[in-house]
Design a protein that fits this description.
GO molecular function, one term (chain B): ATP hydrolysis activity
Order of helices and strands of chain B: EEEHEEHEHHHEHEHEEHHHEE
Mean pLDDT of chain B: 94
Strand content of chain A: 15-25%
Helix content of chain B: 25-40%
Pfam family, one (chain B): oligo_HPY
Bound molecules: adenosine-5'-diphosphate, magnesium ion
Low-confidence stretches of chain B: none
Organism (chain B): Sedimentibacter hydroxybenzoicus DSM 7310
Strand order of the largest sheet of chain B: 6-7-8-3-9-10-12-11
CATH class of chain A: Alpha Beta
Oligomer: heterodimer
Largest sheet of chain A: 8 strands, mixed
Number of strands of chain A: 12
Family (chain B): Belongs to the ABC transporter superfamily.
Largest sheet of chain B: 8 strands, mixed
Number of helices of chain A: 10
Distance between the termini of chain A: 29 Å
Low-confidence stretches of chain A: none
Shape of chain B: globular
Shape of chain A: globular
Distance between the termini of chain B: 36 Å
Structural class of chain B: alpha/beta
CATH architecture of chain A: 3-Layer(aba) Sandwich
Keywords (chain B): ATP-binding, Cell membrane, Membrane, Nucleotide-binding, Transport
Helix content of chain A: 25-40%
Number of helices of chain B: 10
Strand content of chain B: 15-25%
Chain lengths: ~325, ~325
């Protein structure tokens, strides 16, 4: 697992707003190895979705390099990019709004195959649709159902089947289980793990739910206000976190156990605005460990031990 | 003090009667809440948690709602028999409720200090000066600077709006606070702030509380007793220790087995098979039997009674798999 499938360097996405430049993604660099799952965690608005979408060029980056399988996809024309995107897919949080309410399960799954003219006869097409339904665990009897007739878990299975239709090697999963109840969430998480093994998939798994990210990820990137503040193996992130924000975030999660007493770090205030941020550590204002040096320049994301990156002046 | 119950629900059945179906949202529910305690309501979407809470508040319009049977005894009186006027004097005063979305409780065009003062003026005093003084105190308690009182809800972040709602809900020091997924819409660091705040205020006022949540982590942290709800019924009830250390109902077991646990390195998730039943077409017998890994013939034919398996620990299951 040492080959990089995706490599992102100094990626930025700024949005123009009435009040100034909004730094949604602000100079992030990371890579994802073939066959692994990179978890991306952080609170709402920290830039997870924008990162995921920009990596697929569903949103055009402001700046930065994106290498996919060795090719700089940021320099590809829209035309070539469209072909490339067969290999790079996305699954969204709310399958209800990402599916067309007038399309049946069959029509939804068939669509990417039809648009990309994968088959030239109806039998092959229909066989593939049923094969995909089987792969994601959708019963054949549901083939003519509409989204509103399905529960959230089944709708998400349709979303996954659509993403798998063109045999991608990489999938961005943007909060894929956040709208689901826990009993259904576990079904979908297990399904995604099985698919990854069977189909050799590489995942970028975006979620605000730390327990889910810990369960599914090989490595984890922690984002705060457009920046990656820490990036490491899931064990290092969860057992040996270094960045004060990672520590606070982890300590805030209520654990489903009554035999552990936690030392909780309660952060003061809210996440500040991402519009025209002060060029210093984004966490400065809320950091319980801040010192004089932290008033200075932005801390770089540095490798403090093998494969463990932290952006903090104090480390 | 034993047997001092702030709230007793006996055999409550609530239905929604709509044009094309009858939704059995709450089915023969019974429970008791000791004064000063926090009871967790845990269950997945559609289990009937909000319906139960709104029944206690008498917030459900009839029709489409029909409270078919039962008693809700609050401070010794059956509030289902009370007049609308009497209920208005209880609501926001003796019993308050916090919803998941703070904007259901806030008026977007009124400054927040006025909204807090309003409930105080309604229930506690006619003296405007005293009411505004108390409102400012409440802002301080929820850690919002009183200078911000003149601002409107949209000028606050989600976490701060929820704190304003808490200030309104607790301004009259109610005996019972019902919190319906109060932190579900909030980020986890903000959730930690809000939970701590609720805990501190509750402790200093000895408020009794119902905490509705789908998060067993919040239950572990905030509750004394727990009711696990499935398809409109309490399937297991006990102390937090009963539920976490010696749960007996297959649904409770299923819930624990399907959540990833941040404190464990490797964990295999064992999903509960199938999906939630449609409350307008509930299965016969035990409502969990189609999803239960231990179901036997009897479970599909007969509905189990709630049985006490140890002191105060109730389980609605034949427990054939344990025999
Ligand atoms: N199209 C857009 N125009 C302006 N601002 C945007 C747009 N999309 C996202 N943002 C802003 O960018 C920041 C990051 O958003 P997002 O990537 O959705 O965060 P996350 O997925 O972590 O919640 C937020 O402040 C959000 O409001
Ligand atoms: N006004 C209504 N009309 C018809 N059905 C309703 C209404 N409100 C809730 N329900 C149904 O009642 C059941 C219980 O809902 P609810 O009490 O909101 O559950 P929970 O809070 O546990 O998610 C659900 O199946 C829901 O769809
Ligand atoms: Mg997002
Ligand atoms: Mg509810």
């Amino acid at each position: 697992m040492t080959q990089k499938l995706l490599e992102v360097n100094n990626l930025k996405k700024y949005f123009d707003t009435k009040r100034g430049k909004l730094h949604a993604v602000d100079d992030v660099s990371f890579y994802i190895y073939k066959g692994e799952t990179l978890g991306v965690v952080g609170e709402s608005g920290c830039g997870k979705s924008t990162t995921g979408r920009t990596v697929l060029r569903l949103i055009e980056p402001t700046e930065g390099e994106i290498f996919f399988d060795g090719i700089d996809i940021n320099s590809l024309s829209q035309e070539v990019m469209r072909k490339k995107r067969k290999e790079m897919q996305i699954v969204f949080q709310d399958p209800y709004s990402s599916l067309d309410s007038r399309r049946t399960v069959y029509e939804s799954i068939e669509e990417p195959l039809r648009v990309n003219k994968i088959f030239n006869n109806r039998t092959d097409l229909s066989n593939r649709v049923f094969e995909l339904m089987n792969t994601v665990g959708l019963a054949e009897r549901l083939v003519n159902s509409y989204p509103h007739e399905l529960d959230g878990g089944r709708r998400q299975r349709v979303g996954i089947a659509r993403a798998l239709a063109l045999n991608p090697s990489f999938i961005v999963l943007d909060e894929p289980v956040s709208a689901l109840d826990v009993s259904i969430q576990a079904q979908i998480l297990n399904l995604m793990e099985r698919l990854q093994d069977n189909l050799n998939l590489t995942y970028m798994f975006i979620s605000h739910n730390l327990s889910v990210v810990r369960h599914i990820s090989d490595r984890v990137a922690v984002m705060y206000l457009g920046k990656i503040v820490e990036l490491a193996s899931y064990k290092n992130i969860f057992i040996n976190p270094q960045h004060p924000y990672t520590k606070a975030l982890l300590s805030a999660v209520p654990l489903p156990r009554i035999d552990l007493k936690l030392d909780r770090i309660i952060l003061e205030g809210d996440v500040p605005s991402p519009i025209n941020p002060v060029p210093r550590c984004r966490f400065y204002g809320r950091c319980p460990e801040r010192k004089e040096v932290c008033k200075g320049d932005l801390p770089e994301l540095r490798e403090i031990e093998a494969e463990h990156f932290v952006a903090c002046h104090l480390i | 003090m034993k047997n001092d119950y702030i709230l007793e629900i006996e055999d409550l059945t609530v239905k929604y009667i709509t044009e094309d179906s009858i939704v059995s949202a709450v089915n023969n529910m019974s429970l008791k809440l000791e004064r000063g305690n926090t009871l967790g309501f845990v269950g997945e979407t559609g289990a009937g948690k909000t319906t139960t809470a709104k029944s206690i508040m008498r917030l459900l319009p009839e029709p489409p709602t029909k409270i078919e049977s039962g008693k809700i005894i609050f401070n010794g009186e059956n509030i289902l028999e009370k007049s609308i006027k009497h209920m208005q004097s209880i609501r926001g005063n003796k019993i308050s409720m916090i919803f998941q979305d703070p904007m259901t409780a806030l008026n977007p065009v009124i400054p927040i200090i006025d909204q807090i003062a309003e409930v105080i003026l309604l229930h506690q005093t006619k003296d405007r000066k005293a009411a505004y003084k108390r409102a400012e105190e409440m802002l301080e308690i929820v850690e919002i600077k009183k200078e911000r009182g003149e601002e409107y809800p949209h000028q606050f972040s989600g976490g701060m709006k929820q704190r304003v709602v808490i200030a309104i809900a607790l301004a009259c020091t109610p005996d019972l606070l019902i919190a319906d997924e109060p932190t579900t819409a909030l980020d986890v660091t903000i959730q930690a702030q809000v939970l701590k705040l609720m805990h501190d205020i509750k402790e200093s006022n000895n408020t009794s509380m119902i905490m509705i949540t789908h998060d067993l982590g919040i239950v572990a942290e905030a509750c004394d007793n727990v009711a696990v709800i499935y398809a409109g019924s309490i399937v297991e009830y006990g102390t937090k220790e009963d539920i976490f250390n010696s749960h007996a109902h297959p649904y409770t077991e299923g819930l624990f087995n399907c959540i990833p646990d941040l404190s464990k390195t490797e964990s295999e998730l064992i999903p509960i098979k199938g999906i939630m039943p449609d409350p307008s077409d509930l299965p016969t017998g035990c409502k969990f039997h189609p999803r239960c890994p231990y179901a036997v013939d009897r479970c599909s034919k007969e509905e189990p009674e709630s049985k006490e398996i140890s002191d105060g620990h109730m389980v609605k299951c034949f427990l054939e798999h344990r025999k």
